Amino acid sequence: MEKQPNTTIIALVGKGGVGKTSLSAMTVRLLSEAYPDKKILAIDADPAIGLSTALGVDVVSTVDDIRKSFVQTVEDGNKNAAIELLGEAKYQMFDALIELGNVSFLAIGRPESAGCYCKVNAYLKEIISMIADHFDYVVIDGEAGIEQVNRRVMEKVTHLLLVSDGSRKGLQVVQTIHQVASELVMFDKAGLIVNRMPDMSLLDRLDYGDLKLLACIPDDRDMVLNDLNGESVFCLPESSGIYQGCKKALVELGII
Ligand SMILES: Nc1ncnc2c1ncn2[C@@H]1O[C@H](COP(=O)(O)OP(=O)(O)OP(=O)(O)O)[C@@H](O)[C@H]1O
Ligand SMILES: [Mg+2]
Description:
alpha/beta; Rossmann fold; 8-stranded mixed beta sheet; 9 helices; 18% strand; globular; binds adenosine-5'-triphosphate; binds magnesium ion
């Protein structure tokens, strides 16, 4: 795969359950529609795994599987093989990618014990640096909370999409993430999407500090049906609130 000169790396972060995965998947859909000739990589960075379902892909091999086979070889004392493997890891990553049209997909996977998770996060960070520049656009569906920003997994991100619901807690979390990311991540642009807003007339009551509000998405019946039917975001109508709101946010950030 050739390297691409300017990769746009978009990460979606925020509190649990606010719509990061749905909006990551919608971002992938909108990018693939806007740029059918560009290469897009979707990364599910959440061990709870959800982006594959939202995109309608079946995960075969994850970053954690590759990490485990690597660790096993090192533990077996096969140092030469380990060095070779390190070079090979990159190709294994490319093999692990699932492709649908111009979209490739990679999942971090689910380590069995909590202790493994920081290792797989460190691995994920390496992978992002290794393979991101082979794509024009990378969309990262982050784990809930601030951990991956703290651990600099998001180091190379160019666009930070802060996702919240209309709750005080959700809005506090995105402001904290934004603050920490400003110190640790070299992003160019950041903005807020308020999702699942039950009453749009309450918008001016929300306190989101100095964050730039890109879009406010209502609690969307189409999205509820899409979820109940187990469908991918590609099945959502263009008229749906989540399609329109996500599009507005990406336009505001100058991405599409
Ligand atoms: N605008 C919306 N209107 C109605 N339902 C929505 C909307 N956005 C997301 N949902 C629903 O809310 C639930 C949580 O969304 P999602 O999984 O995208 O959140 P998340 O932030 O990724 O959660 P987690 O932190 O658990 O990964 C899902 O059932 C999804 O279908
Ligand atoms: Mg999620």
